[in-house]
Amino acid sequence: MKTTLIAITVAAAFGASALCALAAEPIQIIEPAVITEPAKVELGKKLFFEPRLSKSGFLSCNSCHNLSLGGVDAIPTSIGHDWQEGPINAPTVLNAKYMLAQFWDGRAADLQEQAAGPIENPKEMAMEHHIALKVLESIPQYQAEFKAIYGEQGISLSTVTDAIAVFEETLVTPNSRFDQYLAGDHDALSAEEKAGYALFKANACSACHNGPAVGGTSYQKMGLVQPFVTDNPAQGRIDVTGKESDRNVFKVPTLRNIELTYPYFHDGSVWDLTEAVKVMQQVQLGLPLSDEEAGKIAAFLKTLTGEQPQITLPILPPSTAETPRPQPFGQ
Amino acid sequence: MKTTLIAITVAAAFGASALCALAAEPIQIIEPAVITEPAKVELGKKLFFEPRLSKSGFLSCNSCHNLSLGGVDAIPTSIGHDWQEGPINAPTVLNAKYMLAQFWDGRAADLQEQAAGPIENPKEMAMEHHIALKVLESIPQYQAEFKAIYGEQGISLSTVTDAIAVFEETLVTPNSRFDQYLAGDHDALSAEEKAGYALFKANACSACHNGPAVGGTSYQKMGLVQPFVTDNPAQGRIDVTGKESDRNVFKVPTLRNIELTYPYFHDGSVWDLTEAVKVMQQVQLGLPLSDEEAGKIAAFLKTLTGEQPQITLPILPPSTAETPRPQPFGQ
Ligand code: HEC
Ligand code: HEC
Ligand code: HEC
Ligand code: HEC
Ligand SMILES: [Ca+2]
Ligand SMILES: [Ca+2]
């Protein structure tokens, strides 16, 4: 609200120039990553791709947050250790740094706190933290890298998760066509896409989906005006706060790169973006949208696909005689 | 044999200069990849990383031939669809183009023929070929890429496997310390490593492990002088030829990057390289090696680790409404 008021004031002061008008938009430009600690980012990337942080030796963060696929696994619920079915759709790690908290229910305050979860989660990587640390400690190249970056702290859960988080902070997707439009290039969007954006604002989508990530700024009830019917047992933020009013309240997901992060919703039940837009309109706002209007909004949403992070696959240092062996099967 | 004779002749003609002496070595230098069809390599890379070629939408070639891990999964036997345990240790895809044929038993003539196997193998990617092709056909970016590269042929099993094979041909690991040594840099190896190489030749390891890939030039009986004890039911090349004399005969694996491709042997039973050297000496040659000698050979073998392919992670084009949905669980 504050930002909007300031923007309007500025716009008034300078005349309603295109630039100033855009400054009042509900969505802000994503800035390219500024890398201040390249060695730490490189280490975090290794850890993000490190299957030896899982019990099987097979699953890494990138298995479920595949950076070839917009940072998701693109299936309704994830495949974890022993092919166990996960409880909820995996959100993207792209632009996750803009989220007010991590996980659908916001139970982790930040990326560092989040990263400790999946390693030990028995349905995900199923690896006791102390064994994960032993794996890294058994490998001289990791020892040297942690020492160079963290000095005395060396290899610990907190340095491991710090490095992963710092890598994840670089996973932003700037320069989408919509950002180009925000930056003043009016030709970056087609007429249909502009109409979709106008509908997005007019229909109050932007009341919930706003900020640089077009989401991730608040928790909201899923099924505000009409229940969202799902088999998925997730209860949302009530699990964190214990408050009945937080039942079915979820972190508003980012709509950046939404073209890539199908299937949609916390249960991964909807594959088609236009369909997802219609569901939103129905359960959150209660006003029917025509197919044409929903299509326009979907067309606008596809302009939010940004430049994907250019990742050079890390080359991981080999295990040694001291490295705890992976346990892929029935142990 | 021919090469050796020529090399000796050349060496005689010019005097036994270092270079000419080295030309007679059983191991040849790995040359860097020369990329003549960059668009095809790029497409093949996408397909190598494409989990939508699997029934689950989760497994790609890179899941089991992880290019962060020397082209293997680094577990004794692979994890396939539905976490099924594979029958045999996954060989590396690095330098696979130098193999006289593909698979442990040589049942595929070349990389292109090989690539069709894992997609449809119910224990690997478990994806009927016609559905895999439908996935690619449903995605306009793939359609355009195949058309630009293959013209009329478009998307077919043969073009898909051709692109994968052409990508795999680029997965060579030149410029190992041993290659530098072969190229004339005598300081590239330590005294211990040189001693290990001398033992490797003196003990006739190089009778089987030779050529640029230090293996892959012949089929040989595993357990030539003493049986190799294993629970693994694989019978080797007899499955291809039907000849009793081919029981327990396997393609000699490459020793390039052997430091990275643990665990060893077709059953993945041995994790330690020095131990693997001792097993070889015992079952193939019958002459005991001291720990010290085996250690020297292992030290030499580690000089065969070459420059790993620098892979920029491909960004895969999104699915469409026409794309067959992945079936990760119980369908
Ligand atoms: C087996 C699949 C799987 C693996 C492996 C996995 N994740 Fe996740 N990830 C998920 C799922 C599912 C969620 C959503 C869980 C929830 O919200 O309750 C999630 C949530 C997240 C989030 C929160 C994003 C948001 O917007 O709320 C981040 C960040 C994340 N994962 C990073 C990682 C990192 C880092 C690793 C490795 C250390 C990792 N994940 C490993 C499946 C996985
Ligand atoms: C009252 C808040 C609110 C409003 C208004 C709202 N959304 Fe949402 N939106 C959410 C929440 C919360 C979710 C996650 C719900 C879930 O998965 O349980 C969501 C999910 C989505 C998704 C799926 C994202 C994903 O990655 O799964 C899309 C697409 C979407 N919204 C678009 C829209 C559009 C378009 C509008 C307007 C027509 C809109 N939303 C209005 C809160 C809102
Ligand atoms: C589920 C694990 C898994 C997947 C997925 C997988 N492979 Fe393999 N791969 C193996 C195993 C195990 C073998 C050995 C099989 C045998 O020899 O009988 C193998 C053998 C090979 C070989 C032969 C190497 C040699 O020296 O003989 C090549 C090349 C290869 N795979 C490439 C691929 C390609 C390309 C894909 C994807 C289209 C792929 N693999 C998918 C596990 C896998
Ligand atoms: C008569 C042929 C022959 C001789 C001689 C031989 N090898 Fe082998 N080697 C093989 C075959 C065949 C295999 C694969 C056996 C299997 O896994 O079933 C193998 C496997 C290996 C492996 C494991 C490779 C992997 O990736 O799993 C190593 C290491 C090795 N040999 C080193 C040596 C050394 C060192 C010597 C000499 C002391 C030697 N070999 C002598 C044929 C031979
Ligand atoms: Ca999703
Ligand atoms: Ca191996």
TrEMBL record, chains A, B:
It comes from the Bacteria. It comes from Ferrimonas pelagia. Keywords: Heme, Iron, Metal-binding, Oxidoreductase, Periplasm, Peroxidase, Signal. GO terms for molecular function: peroxidase activity. InterPro entries: Cyt_c-like_dom, Cyt_c-like_dom_sf, Cytochrome_c_Peroxidase/MauG, Di-haem_cyt_c_peroxidsae, MauG/Cytc_peroxidase. This is Diheme cytochrome c5 peroxidase CcpA. The lineage of its organism: Bacteria, Pseudomonadati, Pseudomonadota, Gammaproteobacteria, Alteromonadales. The keyword Manganese does not apply. It is found in: Periplasm. It holds the Pfam family CCP_MauG. The keyword NAD does not apply. Residues 39-147, 191-305 form the Cytochrome c domain. Residues 1-23 form the signal peptide.
